[in-house]
Structure prediction request, 64 residues.
Amino acid sequence: MLAGGIWEALLTTAAGMAVAIPATMALSWLESVCDRLAHDFEDLGTRVFLARDTAAPQYRAAAE
Prediction:
């Protein structure tokens, strides 16, 4: 009877690990994709604002 309880505990632990390990891997992959996208958007925003600042004197000179 004791061995049956230990077997059940080991079996449920293995089933839990079989679910938890792939879920953790998927979460890690998804977080890396989100971090990469956030970095790309920040880089794009910086490039847009810097390009606007460097082009602004040309437009200001033409408007004056």
Remarks:
- DSSP finds one helix and no strands in the chain.
- The two ends are 93 Å apart (CA to CA).
- The mean pLDDT is 85.
- Residues 37 and 43 are 10 Å apart (CA to CA).
